[in-house]
Each structure stands twice: as structure tokens, then as C-alpha cells.
Specification:
Elements: E1 3-5, E2 14-16, H1 23-27, E3 35-38, H2 45-59, E4 64-69, H3 72-89, E5 99-101, E6 106-109, E7 114-120, E8 134-138, H4 145-154, E9 164-169, H5 176-183, E10 189-192, H6 205-211, H7 215-221, E11 243-244, E12 255-259, E13 265-274, E14 277-287, H8 292-306, E15 314-318, H9 333-340, E16 345-347, H10 354-365, E17 374-377, H11 381-389, H12 392-396, H13 406-418
Parallel strand pairs: 3-9, 3-10, 4-7, 4-8, 8-9, 11-17, 12-15, 14-17, 15-16
Antiparallel strand pairs: 1-2, 5-6, 6-7, 12-13, 13-14
Helix pairs in contact: 2-3, 8-9, 10-13
């Protein structure tokens, strides 16, 4: 089915072939003002929301519709490329057929009287006072409820023929968005899909995605199911099968040091990767008033006494926050490590949220296919205790953690840095969804 929406006066139509599970979504805009697309990564939700807003902009002539992303960076990285690819694929040229203000993030389509705004959910107060038509919230499950409250109160323009709220997201958290959809008070109609529903994706993408995550994450990120991933034990995929009696380093391979920087307990784990399998087999730690300077000295002593000539190089994995200057010290934590180990490589990676590094760690213990790629020697008792006992409350409210999380945090930085999550796909939009 090719939807040809006559939004331009001069012979132009927007060509669009909706995915099967989304056909009703577009058809229901008048009968169901509140709609929610729930799907896995690559399920086509962002494209569908952009297309729906483009179509509705021609129905709500002169009335601004708005799409809200969690951050302005996501507006830049997700919304702008998607919308521009739709327009370019249909031969619509900027400053000829439409205008876009990069500063305000506003589209104007003079040929059919359309107005569309892109906004950020981290500043919902900026929507106050606006009279809008349709309001779309992308990734509501990682946005604050205040964004929704402001959004639904703004969908009220008296000249709008289509109003209401569209939610579209991957179910990452059972937050207000989940409650809103489940309790039925706002009468949301749900259109649920999976990664497999997007026929335009490479056939191997869904399988690669499944092998990149643990069981819980696959249910959410592939099949679009609501799964509570911030309750219970954090490292749910870890079991006694991930514990080994001991490990002897391979002399031709580097040793990996995973670091977490604390004051009360500081624990650095020593490991090695061979053939894509990670082995953590020793550690150095300090309790009381721990300092990075002293940890480096302990590590030097440990390496000299127990592992001299049993490794080819050193690689440190740490929280990127370790590069920040500290007012009480002349050097940052990473600079102290560089001073003590000048030939070592130091790896950090920016982490947007805790859940990403947790997902990266769990899939190493056991992915959805049952494969295990991370093992811990039984002498690493603090690390094993973390994996078995750290609860989501400990990560989200560090004051409740006590002696927990210090050993496992460093390992999660390592796994996230070395084995990035596959995430949403990159798609060449010009060749899909156009009906060509």
C-alpha cells in the first residue's frame, strides 16, 4: 500500500508505504487522538512519527505540531536526519519548498501551510503558553512525566483538525509512560511491533541485535515488550557457571585493569581477554581512605611479584569522570595512572546512562543465545559478591550500596568500552519507505 498524501498544490505528493503494523496508526488519527507506537530498535517508529507529522501539518494548516525528543542532541542526531531524508526523497528542496530554522528548530511548509516544531524534553517549560495541534513525544520511557503533562495541556489549538498525543518508543523503563498506556484512563491505542517487522532492515540486523544483549534486553529492544530492567538484581545473567577456579595469563596478551575511583573502598580488577573471552582473575584494593596514587603503587607491586613477564602490555579501563581535575589534587585520576604507567593505554567511553553499561555486562555473562564470554576467578570474592548481590537501588541510590558496587563498576566500564551495544540501526533513508 502506497499512501499518496496530496499536501502540495502543484502536482506533488508524499509517497509513503507504512509498515504493516503501522497502517492502522495513520488511519486512526481522527478516531483515536491518543496513540502509542511501542517497538524494538529499528521498528520504524521515528520514521512513522515524522511522516505522520508531515501529513498532519497539511491538515492542521497554519497550526504548529511538535515532536519532542529527550534532548536537543537527539533532535540533531535523530529527528533532523530522518525528516530531511523524507523531504529529499520526495524532491522537496530547502528554501524552495520548505524553510527550516536551525536555531529555533521550526519547519514551515508554505506550499501546504504546514508548521512543525522540534523540541527537547529536558526543557518542557518552553512549551508553556503555546497552542498546538498534534504533539508527539519520542522515547517517552526515558523522559520525565512533566514533559507529558505540559505536552497534553498544549494540544488545544481551536483551528486544529487533528489533536492529541502520539507516544513512540522502545520500552526501556516501566515509568509513567507504561502506567499511562496500561491503566486506560487516557484511552491510548497501542501499536506494538518488533525489529523483525521492519522489512527494510538488513535481514541479519535483528539476529545481530539479539546476540548483543541478554534475555531481558532482547525482550525490550527486539520484541518491544515492556520489561522492568531497573528492578531486582542488576547482573541477572551472572551465575556460578561464570566462576572459574583460577586463570594463568597468556604472556603474549595484554593485562586489563578495570578501575573505579572511590574514597572508602577502591578496587581495581586485573583481567585478560583471549579470543573474545574475558577472564578476570586478580585485584588490588584499599579500604578506608583510598587514593589513586597508592593504588598505582599497590598495582605495581602486584604485577612485579605475581605477573612479571606474563603479559605484553597494560590497558586501563576507567570511568571517563576520572579525567576531571580534582581540587584537592594536582593531577586527575587518569593523569596519575599515566605518570605511574607511561607506556600503558587508557580507555574511557562516555556512557549516557547506567543501563547501557549494565546491558553490556550482562550480555558478556550470557547473551540471549546462551553464549558466555566473561569469567571470574573464585579468588575475586568482592567482585563475585557484587555480581550476585548488587540491586538496582544500589546503583540508582549510591548511599544505599555500602561496600557493594565498587568492584563491579570498573568491570562494567571495561565491557561497555570494549563491546559497544549494537543499538538502533543506521539506514539509508532515500531508498526505503518511498514506494519507489
Amino acid at each position: 500500500m502506497i499512501v499518496k498524501t496530496r499536501v502540495m498544490k502543484r502536482y506533488k505528493t508524499i509517497k509513503y508505504t507504512p509498515l504493516a503494523y503501522l497502517r492502522e496508526f495513520h488511519a486512526d488519527r481522527n478516531s483515536h487522538p491518543h496513540r502509542a507506537i511501542i517497538t524494538g530498535y529499528g521498528g520504524g517508529k521515528t520514521y512513522a512519527v515524522c511522516m505522520e507529522n508531515l501529513i498532519v501539518s497539511g491538515i492542521n494548516k497554519g497550526v504548529p505540531n511538535v515532536i519532542i525528543e529527550p534532548t536537543f542532541q537527539m533532535v540533531k542526531d535523530i529527528l533532523e536526519p530522518t525528516m530531511f531524508s523524507i523531504l529529499e526523497a520526495n524532491g522537496l528542496k530547502q528554501d524552495r519548498h520548505f524553510y527550516y530554522n536551525k536555531t529555533t528548530k521550526n519547519f514551515v511548509f508554505p506550499l501546504w501551510g504546514g508548521v512543525l516544531w522540534f523540541r527537547s524534553g529536558d526543557r518542557p517549560e518552553k512549551l508553556k503558553g503555546a497552542n498546538l495541534g498534534m504533539v508527539s513525544i519520542d522515547e517517552p520511557f526515558i523522559q520525565d512525566v512533566e514533559t507529558y503533562k505540559v505536552a497534553i495541556s498544549r494540544s488545544r489549538h481551536p483551528s486544529a483538525k487533528v489533536t492529541g498525543v502520539v507516544l513512540s518508543g522502545t520500552p526501556e523503563k516501566l515509568n509513567w509512560g507504561y502506567d499511562l498506556i496500561q491503566d486506560g484512563r487516557e484511552n491510548y491505542k497501542v501499536y506494538q511491533g518488533s525489529t523483525y517487522d521492519n522489512i527494510h532492515l538488513n535481514s541479519s540486523y535483528a539476529e545481530r541485535l539479539k546476540s548483543s544483549y541478554g534475555e531481558k534486553e532482547v525482550r525490550a529492544y527486539v520484541y518491544g515488550e515492556f520489561v522492568d530492567m531497573t528492578e531486582g538484581i542488576v547482573y541477572y545473567a551472572f551465575s556460578d557457571e561464570n566462576i572459574i577456579p583460577d586463570y594463568t595469563p597468556v604472556a603474549t596478551r595484554p593485562l586489563e585493569i578495570s578501575c573505579d575511583f572511590n574514597i572508602d573502598i577502591m578496587c581495581w580488577n586485573i583481567g585478560q581477554e583471549v579470543g573474545g573471552v574475558e577472564y578476570t582473575f586478580d585485584y588490588v584494593e584499599m579500604t578506608g581512605t583510598a587514593k589513586t596514587e597508592m593504588m598505582c603503587q599497590l598495582l605495581k607491586a602486584k604485577l612485579y611479584a605475581d605477573y612479571a613477564n606474563n603479559y605484553s602490555a597494560l590497558v586501563f579501563y576507567a570511568d571517563i569522570a576520572g579525567s576531571a581535575n580534582r581540587p584537592e589534587a594536582a593531577y586527575s585520576n587518569l593523569e596519575i595512572i599515566r605518570n605511574h604507567f607511561p607506556g600503558a593505554r587508557i580507555e574511557t567511553r562516555h556512557i549516557q546512562n547506567i543501563g547501557d553499561r549494565v546491558s553490556a555486562t550482562n550480555r558478556m555473562f550470557q547473551d540471549s543465545t546462551g553464549k558466555r564470554r566473561a569469567y571470574v576467578a573464585q579468588k575475586c570474592k568482592r567482585l563475585i559478591n557484587d555480581y550476585k548481590r548488587v540491586h538496582w537501588d544500589h546503583l540508582l541510590r549510591k548511599g544505599t550500596a555500602g561496600e557493594l558496587t565498587h568492584a563491579s563498576d570498573g568491570e562494567s566500564y571495561k565491557f561497555y568500552a570494549k563491546y559497544p551495544l549494537l543499538g538502533a540501526p543506521e539506514i539509508i533513508r532515500k531508498s526505503i519507505h518511498t514506494g519507489v
